[in-house]
Design a protein that fits this description.
Largest sheet of chain B: 2 strands, antiparallel
Strand order of the largest sheet of chain B: 1-2
CATH architecture of the largest domain in chain B: Orthogonal Bundle
Helix content of chain B: over 70%
CATH topology of the largest domain in chain B: MetI-like fold
Radius of gyration of chain A: 33 Å
Number of domains of chain A: 2
CATH architecture of the largest domain in chain A: Orthogonal Bundle
Distance between the termini of chain B: 63 Å
Oligomer: heterodimer
Order of helices and strands of chain A: HEHHHHHEHHEHHHHHHHHHHH
Number of helices of chain A: 19
Shape of chain B: flat
Strand content of chain B: under 5%
Number of helices of chain B: 17
Largest sheet of chain A: 3 strands, antiparallel
Strand content of chain A: under 5%
Order of helices and strands of chain B: HHHHHHHHEEHHHHHHHHH
Largest interface: A-B, 86 and 94 residues
Helix content of chain A: 55-70%
CATH topology of the largest domain in chain A: MetI-like fold
CATH superfamily of the largest domain in chain A: MetI-like
Strand order of the largest sheet of chain A: 2-1-3
Number of strands of chain B: 2
Number of strands of chain A: 3
C-alpha cells in the first residue's frame, strides 16, 4: 500500500454519517427492496395461476358429476311391444326405438296430468324434456325383462341437456331465445315438475362409468370406456417400458465401456427425452399403422407409442437410482465371490428398486396425460360405445383415452359438453394426483441415504 | 389366434426347458449341487434362454418383415396399365388389404368356407354385397385384378404365418436339444447365461438408437415422397399455406413457422421473467419454510397435462381476453381489437404459464450451483444482495440460464395441445397478437387426423413439417447443451 494516495480533490459532501443515509444508499436500498418485490411478485404470479387453474377446473367441472333425472311411470303396453303376446324375444327385438317413443309420450302426459299441472304444451314437447337416450334405455330394459310387459314400471330417465343446464344455471330464459331444443313454456313445465319432485338433480355414476354419447346427447356421455382405453394403454406401457428401461439403464450404468458407442447412446437418450410428443405420434402412424398395419385407434398402438415416449424418462430416473447405490455394496458382493452380473441383479437392483418404481410411476403419469400422439393414431372421435370384454379385445378394438376424450368433448359445438370436459379433467387429475402421491410416499418410505 | 398360441407354446417350452435343464444338471452329479460348476438354476436358465431367445427374436423380425415382403410380391402382380387414372399403387394396395381382411372375416364368421373364397369370381358374384353381410364395408366395386391380388395376398399371408410358426418351433426345439446336450457338470452355465443376459441388456440399450433411427427414417421416407409430388422450393420459400384436397395446393412452411415462433416468443416473454425472478427469490431470499412450500407448488404447474392447459386456453383465457380486448362497446375495455377467442396471445400466455416452472426449476438448480464464496466476496465488499445477484451470481450462472431458456423454447415450439385448442387455424404473416394464427404442430395434427391418403401431398406434407420440427427442436437442444458445456465456469 505504499503507492496509495488519496484523491486530492475529494468533495466534502461525500462525508456521511451512519445515522443519516446518503442519497446513494437510499437509492441502493430502494433498488434492493424493488428487486426482492419482483421476486415475490413472480412467485405470487405462479401461485395465483395455479389457484386460478384449480378453481376453474373444480368450479366448472363438479357439475358434470350431477345430472338431472326425470322420474316417470311407463306403462309397457303389450299391444305396442309384443303384438303376438308370446313373449318371444325375437319378436320383441323387432320393435325399434321408434316403437317405444309413444309409450314415453303417454307416460309424460300422464305424469303431468296426474300432478294437475296446467300447460299448453303438446305431448311431443313434454316428452322433449327427456333425453333422446330415454327410448334406448326403455328398450334395453324391456329386452332384459320381457316378463314385465303389460305392467307399469317406474323409470328414472335422463333429462335433456337444456333442462339439465337450466337446473345448473348454465341455461337461462334469456339464452334460449333462439334455441330450437327448448322453449320458455317447457321451462315453465320444468319449474312445476321440480316443485313436484319429479325432476331432480342427483349424483350421476354414469358419467364416471358410462361411454361417450353422440353429439345430440351430451347428458348421456361418460368417461368409463375411455378410462378402459387408458388402462389398457398403461398396461402396455408398463409391460414394455419397465423391463426395457431397466435393462437399458443397467447396461449403461454398470456394464457399458467408456467409448463412443456408449456416448452416442447416452446423447441419444437425452435428446429423445426432449423430442416433442407429436413426433412420436408421427412415428406411430408411419411405422405401426402405415407399415405394420396394426389396427387404427387401438390401445395397443397407443401403448407402443407412449412406451417409446416414456422410455427416456424411465431410463434417466433408473440410472439416477442405480447411481445412488454406493460402490461399497458392489465391492462387498464381488469380494465374497459374486460375479459382476450377480452383484448387480442380487444386490444393486433390489436396493435401487424404490427409486426405479418412483420414476416409473411418474413416467406412467406423464404418459397418462399425453394427448397429441393419440390424435394422430386415431384415438379421438366418437369411437367406442361398449366397454371391451376381453383383454385381447381391449388391446385391439378401437377405443379412446381419457385426455383424447376430453379433447373430443372440447371440440363439440354444444356447451353442455364443455362441462363434461372439465369434469373429465377432474377425473384425470385425480388419477395423476394419486399416482404422484403414491410415488412420493414410496420415496419417503423406502428411500435410503448412505 | 394362431400367433397367440405360438407364443404360448414357446413360453411353455421355455418353462419345460428350465425345469429339464436344472434336473439334468443335478442328475449328472447324482443330486449333489456342490459338484456342479454353476448353481443349478443357471443350467435351467441356459436351456430356457436357448429355447426362447432365438425363437422369439425370429418371431419379431418375421412379423416386422412379412408385410413388406408380401406387399412387394403382390403389388408386382398388379399390372400397371390396369390401374385406373389418378390412383397410385398404394391406394390399390389398401383396397387389396381391405378385401383380404373382409374375406378373412367372412371365413371367421362361417359365411363361406376357405375353398369358396378361393373360387370367388368378381364377374359372377357381388363381392361387395357379400362382405357387407359380414360387416365389412368396401368403398367401391371389386375389380377382378384386385380380387385376384387379394387372393394371392391371403395365400401368401397364410403361407408366411405357417412358415413362421414352423421356423420358430424348429428353432426352439433345436435350442432345446443343443443346450440340453451340453448340460453336464463340467459345463460353465453361469458364464454362458451371463453373456446372454448382457447381450439382452445391450439390445435394450440400443432400442434408444433404434427409436431415433425410426423417427428419422419414417419421416425422411415420407418427406422424400412429398418432395417428389410437391416442389421443395415452394415448401421452404413459398409464402402461402393453402391446402386443397382437390390438388394444386400451396404448402409453404414459412407462415406456419412464423406462427410457431411468434407464439413461442410470447410464451417466453411470460415465462422467462416470472420463472427467473421466482428462481432468484427461491434460491437467494426465501427461507427454508417458504422454499419447501412454494417450490413444489410451482412444480405442480409442470405436472399438469397439456390438454388441461389447452382447455383452459379455449374456455377460460380466450373468452376472457375477448372480453378485455374485443366485443367493442360490450367489452370491458370497450376495444375492438380481437374478433375471436383463439389468438396468438391466448395460446402464448397459457403456454407461458405452463413453462414458468420449467424455467424456474432449471434456473434454480443453476443459481444454487454458483459457489457461496462468490456471494460472500461480493457481500463483503459492501454490495447489497440484489447487486450481488445482478453483478456476480447471474453472470456466473448465465450460460446455464441461457441453456434453460433454449430448452424452454424447444418445449414451446413442440407444444401441441395448447396451440391446437387456443391458437386458431389461419396461416398468415401478421404481427397482430390478437389475431388467430396457426403453427407447425397444429397443421401436423389437422393434416394427419381423419382419413389419411398417403399418396397425396396434403397428407405427406405433415411428415415434412414433422421432420422440420424435429430438426428445429433437436438443434435447440444441442445448442443448449453446447452453451452449457462450453461456457460453464469451473469453480472447484
Amino acid at each position: 500500500m505504499t503507492d496509495f494516495s488519496p484523491t486530492p480533490d475529494q468533495p466534502a459532501a461525500a462525508q456521511s454519517s451512519l445515522l443519516t443515509l446518503s442519497k446513494r444508499t437510499i437509492q441502493r436500498n430502494a433498488a434492493e427492496k424493488r428487486f426482492k418485490a419482483y421476486g415475490i411478485a413472480a412467485i405470487a404470479v405462479g401461485l395465483v395461476m395455479l389457484l386460478v387453474l384449480v378453481t376453474t377446473i373444480v368450479g366448472r367441472g363438479t357439475g358434470a358429476f350431477q345430472q338431472t333425472f326425470i322420474t316417470v311411470n311407463v306403462e309397457l303396453l303389450e299391444s305396442k311391444l309384443d303384438k303376438n303376446g308370446e313373449r318371444n324375444i325375437e319378436d320383441i327385438k323387432r320393435v325399434t326405438t321408434f316403437g317405444y317413443a309413444p309409450l314415453i309420450k303417454t307416460a309424460m302426459q300422464n305424469t303431468v296430468a296426474d300432478l294437475g299441472i296446467e300447460t299448453s304444451l303438446k305431448t311431443k314437447h313434454m316428452a322433449g324434456l327427456l333425453s333422446k337416450n330415454a327410448v334406448a334405455q326403455l328398450r334395453a330394459f324391456v329386452l332384459e325383462n320381457p316378463e314385465k310387459i303389460g305392467e307399469t314400471v317406474e323409470f328414472r330417465f335422463l333429462a335433456q341437456s337444456r333442462v339439465d343446464g337450466y337446473l345448473k344455471g348454465r341455461v337461462s330464459r334469456d339464452s334460449i331465445a333462439n334455441d330450437k331444443n327448448i322453449s320458455a313454456e317447457q321451462l315453465d313445465l320444468v319449474d312445476a315438475l321440480v316443485a313436484a319432485g319429479v325432476i331432480e338433480k342427483t349424483f350421476n355414476l354414469d358419467f364416471i362409468l358410462g361411454s361417450d354419447a353422440s353429439d345430440q346427447r351430451p347428458e348421456a356421455a361418460g368417461m368409463g370406456v375411455s378410462m378402459m382405453g387408458s388402462l389398457f394403454m398403461m398396461l402396455v406401457v408398463l409391460a414394455l417400458s419397465l423391463p426395457i428401461g431397466v435393462a437399458a439403464s443397467i447396461y449403461l450404468e454398470e456394464f457399458a465401456p467408456k467409448n463412443w458407442i456408449t456416448d452416442v447412446i447416452e446423447v441419444n437418450i437425452a435428446n429423445l427425452a426432449a423430442v416433442p410428443s407429436i413426433v412420436y405420434g408421427i412415428l406411430g402412424l408411419a411405422v405401426f399403422i402405415n407399415y405394420m398395419h396394426l389396427p387404427m385407434s387401438a390401445p395397443l398402438v397407443g401403448g407402443l407409442v407412449l412406451t417409446l415416449m416414456t422410455l427416456p424418462t424411465i431410463i434417466i430416473s433408473t440410472r439416477a437410482a442405480l447411481k445412488a447405490v454406493p460402490p461399497s455394496i458392489r465391492d462387498a458382493a464381488l469380494g465374497v465371490g459374486a460375479s459382476k452380473m450377480q452383484s448387480v441383479f442380487h444386490h444393486v437392483l433390489p436396493l435401487a428398486a424404490p427409486g426405479i418404481l418412483t420414476g416409473t410411476i411418474i413416467g406412467l403419469a406423464q404418459a397418462l396425460g399425453e394427448t397429441a400422439p393419440l390424435l394422430l393414431i386415431g384415438m379421438v372421435g366418437f369411437i367406442a360405445s361398449n366397454a371391451p370384454e376381453t383383454i385381447g379385445e381391449g388391446l385391439l378394438s378401437p377405443n379412446s383415452a381419457m385426455p383424447a376424450q376430453i379433447y373430443e368433448w372440447a371440440k363439440r359445438a354444444d356447451p353442455a359438453f364443455y362441462e363434461r370436459a372439465w369434469g373429465g379433467i377432474i377425473i384425470l387429475l385425480i388419477f395423476l394426483v394419486t399416482m404422484n402421491t403414491v410415488a412420493v410416499i414410496l420415496r419417503r418410505r423406502f428411500e435410503r441415504r448412505w | 389366434m394362431p400367433l397367440f398360441w405360438l407364443v404360448v407354446v414357446l413360453l411353455a417350452l421355455t418353462a419345460l426347458g428350465f425345469w429339464f435343464g436344472r434336473r439334468r444338471a443335478l442328475a449328472s452329479v447324482q443330486g449333489n449341487p456342490r459338484h456342479l460348476h454353476s448353481l443349478p438354476i443357471y443350467y435351467g436358465a441356459n436351456v430356457a434362454m436357448s429355447i426362447a431367445i432365438p425363437a422369439l427374436l425370429t418371431l419379431v423380425i418375421w412379423l416386422l418383415a412379412q408385410p413388406l415382403v408380401i406387399e412387394n410380391r403382390v403389388s408386382a402382380t398388379i399390372p400397371q396399365d390396369l390401374l385406373p387414372e389418378n390412383t397410385s399403387i398404394g391406394l390399390v394396395m389398401s383396397d387389396v388389404r381391405r378385401l383380404a381382411e373382409g374375406l378373412d372375416q367372412a371365413v371367421e364368421q362361417n359365411v363361406m368356407t376357405t375353398a369358396e373364397t378361393l373360387a370367388l369370381d368378381a364377374s359372377t358374384t357381388d363381392v361387395r354385397e357379400l362382405l357387407g353381410t359380414v360387416g365389412v364395408a368396401l368403398g367401391s366395386e371389386v375389380r377382378p385384378e384386385v380380387l385376384s391380388a387379394a387372393q394371392s395376398y391371403r395365400q401368401l399371408s397364410s403361407t408366411g404365418s405357417t412358415a413362421m410358426a414352423v421356423v420358430c418351433l424348429v428353432l426352439a426345439l433345436a435350442g432345446f436339444g443343443l443346450s440340453a446336450r451340453h448340460t453336464n457338470k463340467e459345463f460353465r452355465a453361469r458364464n454362458v447365461v451371463e453373456r446372454g443376459v448382457l447381450a439382452l441388456l445391450i439390445l435394450a440399450a440400443s432400442l434408444a438408437i433404434l427409436t431415433t433411427v425410426g423417427i428419422v427414417l419414417s419421416m425422411l421416407f415420407e418427406t422424400v415422397n412429398f418432395f417428389g409430388l410437391h416442389a421443395w422450393t415452394d415448401f421452404f420459400f413459398g409464402s402461402t399455406w393453402a391446402p386443397n384436397f382437390r390438388g394444386d395446393s400451396e404448402l409453404s412452411m414459412l407462415p406456419l413457422l412464423w406462427g410457431t415462433l411468434y407464439i413461442s416468443a410470447i410464451a417466453l416473454l411470460v415465462a422467462v421473467p416470472v420463472g427467473l425472478f421466482a428462481a432468484i427469490y427461491l434460491s437467494e431470499y426465501a427461507g427454508p419454510a417458504v422454499r419447501s412450500l412454494a417450490k413444489p407448488l410451482l412444480e405442480i404447474l409442470a405436472g399438469i397435462p397439456t390438454i388441461v392447459y389447452g382447455l383452459f386456453a379455449l374456455l377460460t383465457v380466450g373468452p376472457l381476453l375477448l372480453n378485455l380486448f374485443g366485443q367493442g362497446e360490450n367489452g370491458i375495455l370497450g376495444l375492438n381489437w380481437m374478433t375471436g377467442a383463439t389468438s396468438v396471445l391466448t395460446a402464448g400466455v397459457v403456454m407461458g404459464i405452463m413453462l414458468i416452472p420449467f424455467v424456474s426449476s432449471l434456473s434454480d438448480d443453476i443459481i444454487n450451483a454458483v459457489p457461496q464464496s462468490l456471494r460472500d466476496g461480493s457481500l463483503g465488499l459492501g454490495a447489497t444482495r440484489s447487486e450481488t445477484i445482478r453483478q456476480v451470481v447471474l453472470p456466473a450462472a448465465l450460460p446455464g440460464i441461457v441453456g434453460a431458456i433454449l430448452l424452454a423454447a424447444s418445449r414451446a415450439i413442440g407444444e401441441t395441445m395448447i396451440v391446437v385448442m387456443g391458437a386458431g387455424a389461419i396461416a398468415k404473416f401478421s404481427a397482430n397478437p390478437f389475431e388467430s394464427m396457426t403453427t407447425i404442430t397444429t397443421r401436423v395434427v389437422s393434416q394427419l387426423t381423419g382419413d389419411t391418403d398417403f399418396a397425396s401431398p396434403e397428407t405427406l406434407v405433415a411428415f415434412a413439417l414433422g421432420l422440420s420440427l424435429f430438426v428445429l427442436t433437436l438443434g435447440l437442444n444441442v445448442l443448449a447443451l453446447y452453451i452449457v458445456r462450453k461456457y460453464r465456469e469451473q469453480y472447484d
